[in-house]
Structure formats: C-alpha cells, structure tokens
Queue: 4 jobs
Job 1
Amino acid sequence: MDIHPIAPEKRAAVLAELDRIERDHDVRVLMACESGSRGWGFSSPDSDYDARFIYVHRQPWYLSVNEATGPGQAQRDVIELPIDDELDVSGWDLRKALRLLSKSNPTLSEWLRSPIVYRQDNAAVAALLQAVDQFHSPLGSWWHYYNMANSNFRGYLRGDRVRTKKYLYVLRPLLACRWIEQDLTTPPPMAFEDLLERLLPQGPVREAIDQLLVVKRASAEVADGPRVEVISGFIERELEAMAAGAPALPAGSGSADALDALFRRMLAEHAAA
C-alpha cells in the first residue's frame, strides 16, 4: 500500500498551478512538496492536497527603494492561492524562508525533508538543508512539537469519546520530541512511519497505532469514537513526563553572516534579472 498517495491527475494539477504562479508573479519556484497528512503518511482517501513551496523573485524586487505593494501594505512574502475542495497551494519567498530557517523553524525543515516532492532545484535544496542543519535548535524544536502535542491532546483527546484521528496529530509531535532528545544533529522527519520505526518498533502501543493507521487510511473520515486506552495511556504518560520540564538541549548556533552570504549566492544563481 502506498502510504503517501498522490493521484497522477492531482500531481499534474499542482504542477500546473506552480507553472501559473511563476508566470503570474514573475518568480521562480525552487522547491515544492506535499505537507499535511499525505506527507505525514496517514491521509484518508478524501484528504486534500497541501502543496507548499519556496520561491525567489528577480533581484530588483529585493533592491527597489519603494516596495511593490498596494497603498499602506507591506511587501508580501507569501503567495497563497484560493483553496478549493482538494488543492491548498501556498509558498514562502526565499528571504522569508531564510528568516524562519534562522529561527530553526520546524515546518521549513519538514518541507525540505518531505517524502513527496513535486519540483525542486537540487542545488538550492541541498544548500537550504545544509543551512537548516547548521541552525537547528533542538531545544526550540522540542518546545514546538511539545506545544503542538499538548494543545491537540487538550482540545480533542480528554473525554470518554475522542476525535479518533487526533491521536495521530498528538503522537507525531510527541515522537518528534523523543527523536530530538535522542538525535541532536538531525531534525525529525516529516514521515510518521520513520518516527515509528525508530521510536516504537514493536509492542502493544505500536500494534494499536498500526490498527488506527489502517482505519485512517481506508476511511473517508475517522469520526469520534471511544478512547483507545493503550494509546491514551501512552500519550498521557509521555505528556506528564514532558510537563515536568524540558530536557537539557542546546539552542541553535548558526551564523547570521553565513546566512546573508547564502541569500546573496542564491539570488545570484536563481534570481538574475
């Protein structure tokens, strides 16, 4: 079974939208990937397609005295298409992406490691991945994933009946926290299966999660249902242990000068007027 399904016609639709974005906005798309449940590996048959991309303008866009905007508007550093029933396509300008990279933004790291790639400039992605690893803050990333797990748990998994699919939205960031605690050099992967294989290779909790994945991948939507005690107990123990205090982890240590140099080099290579 393909756990990262992309229908050929949907891939073609995403690629067509990327081509249109390049024409309409006079930009170059450096990479485009799938985010969300299809990238994580637990989509339902009717899950939408969350295409995310990084793009670069021509050099004059970054160098003009007056920003190219409407009256009273800040210069836009995102491109977002109207969301339809199935396609959700949006992206970040390169400078925005690098700013977030300097803050060890986990979302950007996941995009660059997505198992589903629509388009990419290999040299650009390699340079960005190298910078991600240099700026990776295990401590900042740990807090990002812990807060994600905790908020989803409090919002959806505390009653006798729960939003069953939300188990996965808690388990993935919980395991990402544990990944960070064990591996200070490599940010957590996007794919949920990679987290499971390293951190829960076997046992009753893994068996219950595997059963949940089968249901989630086969059902149009997994509605509310009774608590799965083995999974709920695992989540509650993990969150309780994490709430006692963040582990002793290093912060990021990348060089701002090096990031500026990367930005200028990428502009010279990919954004010539």
Job 2
Amino acid sequence: MKLQPDKSNAPTINAYDRVWIEVNGVRHAQSLSVSSLPDVPPAPWATNHFEALSANDFSPWAQSGAELILFGSGQKLRFAKPQWLQDLIARGVGVETMDTAAACRTYNILASEGRKVVALLLIES
C-alpha cells in the first residue's frame, strides 16, 4: 500500500508553548485565530484572559463558512458560556472545547483532511 501525506493549503501550526504558537514559521505571542478557510490568514483574536471573553469574540465566526470551531481555552480546559456560542449553534456550526495545546494538534489533523475548521486559540499572559 502506498501512503502519501495529505496536502493542504491551510496554515499549519508548527509548534506551541504555553506563551506562544508558531503558524507557518511565524511565532504569535497573543491569542489568535487559525483557519483552514480560503483567504482567512492567522490573525489576533479576542483577549489574553478567559474571563474577558464574550459572545462578540465568537459570533463573527458564525457566518465564516466553517463547519467546526475549535476553542482552545488556554492551559486548562474551561468551557465557553452557552450565551457566547448562541450564534454558532443557531447556524449549525459545531464547537469543540479543549485546552489550547490539544486544539493546536486537532486543528492540524482536521485541516490536513480538508475540513473547514477554525481554531480560536487563547494564549494567556
């Protein structure tokens, strides 16, 4: 059986630490969004504190065309409040919550499969 690596044009998370994430060779030291959607580059996202998050940080992604949002909640697993996710749920966008390290790993797998996925990654200062 011949095995070939999946090819994807999506940004790839190359490495991460508790205070930075490297995407396509560029280090980011603040919370960011990483998307496999066409023409959506990695960008700063939200805040650096879980307690400061709100529906305004999640709602814009409801109309993005993503089929799944991965919420990386920082160094520990903390679930988003249901009111933060109402717009996503109303549009049928799946939401999975995990710590940021797990979200980085999961994003790479799903993006390499060609899935329409967005990772919202909290890096706490």
Job 3
Amino acid sequence: MTNWTQVMDAHGATARVPALLEQVERSDAPAAWDELGDRLCLHGETVSPASFAALPRLAALAPYRDRALDLACAIMRGAVQHHGGNALLAACTEAIAALRELADRRLRSRPSDYQRAFGDLLALAGQYHWAAAMEGFTDDFYPVPCPRCDVEVIVAIGEHGHYSAIRDWDRGDIDRRALRPAPAEDLSDLGRWLHATAVRDGQPRLAEGIRHLFGRAECPRCASVFGIAEAYTRANLAPSW
C-alpha cells in the first residue's frame, strides 16, 4: 500500500492526491478531476512520484471513467522526462498492462481523435519517443544523423512527399532522395505491430506512413542507405530508457 505521506505531487504536496482520488472514485466530479490532473500531470507533461503511485488506482477506475484513462495515458507520455521513472514504473506493471488493454479497446472503436489515442497506446507500450514523434503523417519530418557521415538528414513523410533531403534554410529541402518503404511482411516486430494495428482500425494513411518510417532512406551527402526508425531511435531515445 502506498504511503502517501512520503509521495509528493507536482506541487510538492503529499496529502492532496489521495484525497482527490477518493473523490473521483466516489463520483465523477469535474473539479476534482481538473485538480488531480494538475497535480499528477502539470501542464499536461510534468509528472512526479505521485503520478506513478496513482496509476494502479487510475487503472481500476479507467473501465468506468474515461478521464481516468486519459490521465493515466498523459502520465505515461510524460514518464520519459522523469528522472528515475523506470524504477517507479516497475512497480506498476500490472496497472500498465490493464491500461494498455483499455487503450487498445478504445482504438478499436475508431475514436475521432484516433491519432492521439494511437500515441497513448504507444506510450503504454513503452514507446515513448514514437508516442511523441508520430503525428499522423500528414506533414511529418524526422531529423536524423546519417550513421555513416553524421550529416543531419531530414526525412519527410506526408502530403508533400516521402523523401530524405538536406535542409537548407534559404532553399528548403534540397537533393531529395525517395524513401524505400518496407514491405509489410518485412517490418520489424514493432513496425509490424504498429502497421497491423493501423490496418485493423482502417487507418490507411497511418499504415502507409509506418511502412515508410520503418523503411530505409538514402543520405544525400554520402549516398549510404540506412534504416530510418533505427537512426531516429538512436538519436532520440534516452540511454536510461
């Protein structure tokens, strides 16, 4: 059982979060949810030890309270920014697994905010950098260092094209090279899961974007060909995660 007298929220308090949890467990009070969200995920991104401690109770509420699932997903999206978050999450594995199932069930219903819900599922699966980076492939850009020559390569996936390029701030993206999307059957385990989820839920643009993101790009400077997802992960995933 959590000793709430030792667990601080985003405002440095120790007593308010358990009181608010009791309120929302009794009734779906909007004011209590607003304050709880402010204390557990300040400005929608800053989490605290109390955030992780609250996950099991939010998971228990989530089948009946949409806001519980929303808040838990926001906490998971912010988890990567919290020093020591890995250790705190290790105590919440059962709650996270339950939340992940609920998030996947929400996706199957094809909500109007599908892309946000897709990012929530990624965060609950521990794919924090992809939860933050995948925006639906309408106009997505991924800066990655070339693994061979270390020049910054811009990878574009969206309505303006699917290419790698060198970004010139006066002339735009120059020396473009077409991306090489991965065939669905050749996707990595992560890419295959993401692609299959998008296909299952009738999201063709998302599915096609995933094939490109987990495909290969050519460096315009040295002409080496590299895996886009691997390069982006190396550049953006903190070593501790």
Job 4
Amino acid sequence: MVKILALLLLQVAYVFGCGAPAFQPLTNRVVNGEDARPNSWPWQISLQVKHGSRFHHTCGGTLVGPRWVLTAGHCIWPGDVYRVVLGEHDQSQQEGTEQIIEIMRIIVHPNWDIDMVADGNDLALLKLDKAPIMTDSIEVACLPEAGEILAHGKECYITGWGNLYTHGPMPDKLQQAMLPVVEHSVCSRSDWWGMNAKTTMVCAGGDEVSGCNGDSGGPLNCLGQDGRWYVHGVTSFVSSRVCNEVKKPTVFTRISAFTEWLNDVMLQY
C-alpha cells in the first residue's frame, strides 16, 4: 500500500512537472551561502504570518502539489494567521513573479510535539485556497521514493530567507548554500547529535554553513540521477547556541519517511 501511495504522489508531481527549473540553480560548491539565482528553486515558498495589519516572513516551505505546501510543524502556532507567497525572490520589492494565496486548511503531523522537537515528526501540510498558476517561477517539487536514504557526503542545497548568521539580519534575497549529507551513523554519535538524531531525519552541513532562524520549514534540495532536483528534507532544527556549531549539522525531517502520511492527508482533504 505504501508503494502504491508513493507512486500516486510521484505521478501528481510529474503531471504538473517537477524538479527541472526553467532557470537552473548556480551550484558552484559554495559553502558559506550566497544569493540564489532568481526563481531557480521554483517550489520554494515564503510562509508569512500576520502581525497587526501586515504580513512578515516566518518560515520556508515547499510546493508539493497543485494546492499543497509542506513546511515544519514548529512553524505553525494556533491562532496565528498565515499566507503563502510563491514565485518570491527579493522580499524587498515586487518583481512581478509573486503569487499570494490564502491557506484553507492546516494539518500538523499528529505526533508532532513542540516540547519534544528531537522526537521528530516536524511536519505540517497547508492546503491552499486555490492552485497557483504554474509559471517558470512556480513549480511543484519532485519528492523521493518512500524509504529512500541519501548517501553520506551527497551534496544538497538548503534554500531560504533565514538569518545570515546567528542573531544576524534576514536577507531580502533568497539564499542557497551547499550542505553535504551526514549519514545517520555519524550524526547520531554521542559528540554529534546523539539520540536527538532519529532515523526519520536527515543531517546535512557542518561547522562552516547551516540553516538558521527563518529557514525552518524550507527544502533540502538534492540533484537526482535523472537530472531532476528532489526535495528530501524539511528544515527542522539547529543548535540552540549558534546556527553553525561544530558537529551539529542542520537537521531536516526526512520526507521519504513520511510518504504514507503525506499521501493520506492529500487524498483525504
């Protein structure tokens, strides 16, 4: 049954096209982060929360279906009002590629616990009020097959508008940085993340680069053997002391561990 559901999810993605941006990312092995090429990660969204009369960026997310966005469970707080901005690059100006869509329904993973972040299950699905118009700047992400595990050292890219460094400013332009995958047997060592690293997670990065506040919920993008980009992770947590602590790589919720849940929710709602 899980395999059938995984195929359904992949079929949805391929019907709408996925993982092949019109504007190819510039991937030159940068490790300290840089401005992304505009609209080269077209499944990346900005999740914005309403404060007073204005909306502000709070988390990233990934467009995984015509009306579905995947983000982190810890990005969602009861009572807050959110919206999704697609086709975004520079948040300081209107570039004509943006589409702003309200959220109809929010489904947080039932086993997510804000008080037990390291237990995992840090996922939430957002059903959009309407499907965006697919353009060169807006595209559905490719997702991995159920159970797929990334190889140690695989070069993937984190993207987002998170702080440029610990307690630093948030950038206007979407950032990207290469993070090599750290396999579970290493990431779960006692001097690394220890028991906080679960098999349902992906660790990536090192002491030179990491995710930071504001990157939460965003994608871990990895190039597949078929030449398409696949989103393997949802940015979950970093060290509480500094974003780029030694032996504390960025931890992502591993999407391939939750294929059945994703399909169940999207089919049910």
